[in-house]
Amino acid sequence: MARVNFDLDVLRTFVAGVELGSFARAAERLGRSTSAVSAQLKKLEEQAGTPVLRRKGRGMALTDAGETLLAYARRLLELNDEAAGALRGASLEGRVRLGLQEDFGETLLPAVLGRFARAHPKVRIEVRTARNQELIRGVRNGELDLALAWDAGERTPHQETLGAVPQCWIGAIGAPAPDLGQPLPLAVLEAPCLLRSAATAALDRAGIAWRVAFTSAGLSGIWAAVAAGLGIGLRTPLGLPPNVERLDDARSGLPQLPPLGLCLHHGEADPEPVAARLAELLRGGVAETLQGLGER
């Protein structure tokens, strides 16, 4: 039986279409016509020997085979891009300074920095985990080359929006619905904190009394307090440990909050090659992370 050699260019179109939720948008991003993208998808199904997409309303959805192929496609493209980056950037040297939210410390950071370090061993990476205000200030003051931060309305001269992450109330596994007849105990980060402010403002608008039952300088303290039942938290699904869970807004009676925008801030309009390469990897890592949240 002849071996199948998947076309990486076709796989890239396939992955982009799935992640963007539209192959028309994928065509626009990749600089191709919609007819060219359709031809690529037809070629992909011929190579796969089975349908990978099916009609769903006005759009397309993955078949079981498509779900399987998507996972392999991402791995193949990751290896391809890592190899290409290593060859192009084998001579890259210098330093790049990255700032990001603590939420990404266990989800995005290890994968992205691992790829970067393998491809560019001569580059020194300095990473700072901090709150939004500190990250924005670091970019503005020239202390950071890149910063991955929540969209809190603060702008920097060179920024791009990468997507949005749900905000969710979290509680201990199996805990009863909160008693809204009493002030709601909150487990929050020390002020100033974007999600702390969002939680208290939403509760005030909903007419729900609250009290700060636990404060922490870091997320690990919040996870411990929520797991112990000391309070309810407002976070995103990123990095949630197994001993806490998202609360159902309808069952808990807590107000629903809108998604939180995620921005990548650049220190320069024309960044150095090392910063540009790390930004490229961050975009890909964020896209994978957000896609994973959408599949839950």
The gist of it:
With 296 residues, the chain is α/β, with parallel strands linked by helices. It contains ten helices and twelve strands.
Write the layout of secondary structure elements.
Elements: H1 8-20, H2 23-30, H3 34-48, E1 53-56, E2 59-62, H4 64-88, E3 94-100, H5 109-119, E4 123-129, H6 132-140, E5 146-150, E6 159-165, E7 168-172, E8 184-189, H7 194-206, E9 210-216, H8 219-227, E10 233-235, E11 244-246, H9 249-252, E12 260-266, H10 273-294
Parallel strand pairs: 3-4, 3-5, 8-9
Antiparallel strand pairs: 1-2, 5-12, 6-12, 7-10, 7-11
Helix pairs in contact: 1-2, 1-3, 1-4, 2-3, 4-5, 5-10
Provide tags for this entry.
single chain, 296 residues, alpha/beta, 5-stranded mixed β-sheet, 12 strands, 44% helix, globular
Largest sheet: 5 strands, mixed
Q: Mind telling me the C-alpha Rg?
A: 22 Å
Number of helical elements:
10
Structure class:
alpha/beta
Oligomer state equals single chain
Tell me the helix content. 40-55%
Your description of this structure?
There is one protein chain. The protein is of the alpha/beta class and 296 residues long. It has 10 helices and 12 strands. It has helices at 8-20, 23-30, 34-48, 64-88, 109-119, 132-140, 194-206, 219-227, 249-252, 273-294; strands at 53-56, 59-62, 94-100, 123-129, 146-150, 159-165, 168-172, 184-189, 210-216, 233-235, 244-246, 260-266. The protein has a 5-stranded mixed sheet, sandwiched between helices. A 3-stranded antiparallel sheet has the order 10-7-11. Strands 1-2 form a two-stranded antiparallel sheet. Helix 5 (109-119) links the parallel strand 3 (94-100) and strand 4 (123-129). Helix 1 (8-20) crosses helix 3 (34-48), helix 2 (23-30) crosses helix 3 (34-48) and helix 4 (64-88) packs across helix 5. It is globular, with a radius of gyration of 22 Å. The two termini are 37 Å apart. The mean pLDDT is 87.
